[in-house]
Amino acid sequence: xxxxxxxxxxxxxxxxxxxxxxxxxxxxxxxxxxxxxxxxxxxxxxxxxxxxxxxxxxxxxxxxxxxxxxxxxxxxxxxxxxxxxxxxxxxxxxxxxxxxxxxxxxxxxxxxxxxxxxxxxxxxxxxxxxxxxxxxxxxxxxxxxxxxxxxxxxxxxxxxxxxxxxxxxxxxxxxxxxxxxxxxxxxxxxxxxxxxxxxxxxxxxxxxxxxxxxxxxxxxxxxxxxxxxxxxxxxxxxxxxxxxxxxxxxxxxxxxxxxxxxxxxxxxxxxxxxxxxxxxxxxxxxxxxxxxxxxxxxxxxxxxxxxxxxxxxxxxxxxxxxxxxxxxxxxxxxxxxxxxxxxxxxxxxxxxxxxxxxxxxxxxxxxxxxxxxxxxxxxxxxxxxxxxxxxxxxxxxxxxxxxxxxxxxxxxxxxxxxxxxxxxxxxxxxxxxxxxxxxxxxxxxxxxxxxxxxxxxxxxxxxxxxxxxxxxxxxxxxxxxxxxxxxxxxxxxxxxxxxxxxxxxxxxxxxxxxxxxxxxxxxxxxxxxxxxxxxxxxxxxxxxxxxxxxxxxxxxxxxxxxxxxxxxxxxxxxxxxxxxxxxxxxxxxxxxxxxxxxxxxxxxxxxxxxxxxxxxxxxxxxxxxxxxxxxxxxxxxxxxxxxxxxxxxxxxxxxxxxxxxxxxxxxxxxxxxxxxxxxxxxxxxxxxxxxxxxxxxxxxxxxxxxxxxx
Length: 710
Known about the structure:
Blueprint: H1 4-53, H2 57-63, H3 70-74, H4 80-84, H5 88-92, H6 99-119, H7 131-171, H8 177-207, H9 210-222, H10 228-237, H11 239-248, H12 256-259, H13 265-273, H14 287-299, E1 301-304, H15 312-325, E2 330-335, H16 340-350, E3 355-357, H17 363-373, E4 375-380, E5 397-400, H18 412-423, E6 426-430, H19 439-449, H20 451-455, H21 459-463, H22 466-473, E7 477-478, H23 482-485, E8 492-499, H24 503-514, H25 518-527, H26 533-547, E9 552-556, H27 559-569, E10 574-577, H28 583-595, E11 601-605, H29 606-609, E12 620-623, H30 630-638, E13 649-656, H31 660-680, H32 683-686, H33 696-708
Parallel strand pairs: 1-6, 1-7, 2-4, 2-5, 3-4, 5-6, 8-13, 9-11, 9-12, 10-11, 12-13
Helix pairs in contact: 1-7, 1-8, 1-9, 2-6, 7-8, 7-9, 7-10, 7-11, 10-11, 13-14, 14-15, 15-16, 24-25, 25-27, 31-33
């Protein structure tokens, strides 16, 4: 039998742990509930305003012949919102309307409102900053700020509340003299067993360091809300995370069909049942991204063909992180050399996995470490055939980025990918290039993954239309477009495209650094090697934009860079528009670029085309190098991201990790807060790019000379 004093000690420890878990669980529900309530208030306001813009004739269109709107208009009720705000009794008193007509009007108005609500997405107006939006962002900011501490504790807290309460109730008999006397021998034995169970639960929690995690989560929940100024500045920097939080909080109703790529019900059901463990993931996924990762896991060998900018990379990382949580250790990413650095950065930032670059001077050492310790090996598609790993080493998943590069089955790179896909159980091909009109190439990719699906494809599938095509390839292919799934996303999507210097570029760069020639240092990526990282990535981005029918504007500070890009892209590109282009010719050039149906490319010096021109025909902006004055890049992007733009704008910044770009960005980051305070919201400063002097050249040269010892 358990001694009463010992039982009381165990009960006290169990109650302390239960109380801490309850505070975290209740506090988490409270702050998330506040955020949800704030969202619903904002959405209701937007819905009411929207319904006021709908004429009452919309009720007749929705309800058919039974709806009579003439009496409403005579009574001054001219909008759906006005009708919805009245009760049936109020409507029935309007001359010309019976009780039945009033009921039909009220029901139809509610149906229209429900339909409008389903398609309504809250978009926070940064320029307006009204009270309701501030309340929504403040509540959401509190959730986002607490999530790093609360997230890991949420599941354990909820589990402990239920399990500990039951154990404490059963064990409490052993801690009370009176209750144990009335419990009888059998009851005292059951209580003793419950005390031992409770002791083990407390010890397990201590071993897993749950009390410390709960205390940390409770402190995060109790933090005072941030000031409106802080909240709006945070929203400006990471608005996408706020919109993601709306979905995670259950505050929005996404377009389920779009998010699921219009897949048939049997596949979507299987995907929805697929769990997605976030233990090794550092980022919250949007609903469609979670679906994409689970699609890859449920189907095993797939192509994710989402349009550029939707996060194909993070979906792949989420799938690998899930498998790591389930005990798998080795993964491999195969990609063009131009995006290798991007992959290593994304893996490090988005997950707890370790990425190893299986390329360049560290290839041998990194390969040995990857083989021994596990993680994500990142190899180029062209060197995959030379990658030697031990026989029997299990690689749980392979991701092939820009998979359309292996569409020709006769090339060496394609044969290497085929060999690896045969030995790896799970494979994800990534390609933003739409494949529906290239059935032969598409069939080749599918044949690597699911030959049975490939064998069943024929030209009649495309002739029957996109729905038929998607049904035929549903087991292997998932594609979503920005317009389908990012209805609430702000119109600007930014991406940093990192690369490394080639050998020739590095030699030229060292010479420029030794000479202290800052301008030459900045231009090396476009003058030293026509197959260098930036030029290669630029061509890939332009090709993907072409496949998606998007217009592209390419900005650089340097004529030399634009000359190289012109040679790379050929005569089809418009420009370059430079400072020497007469003012009257500049808009003509833009107009000609805009008039081309579908895809076209415009080249421009950033200060020549970045001010005073309307380039809203472009929805992809490529900036060849970071600008040393913060306003110049902002003004250039604003040429496309402006009133009249009907597509979300993608901004790609080409950056070199081992060149001046890294140092420029680091120094600018330190200056940016001062610039935000002074220039961004100042009309005087906005009109004068020189308002804030950031003398980068000397600092960058000095730092690079020290780093390279030249």
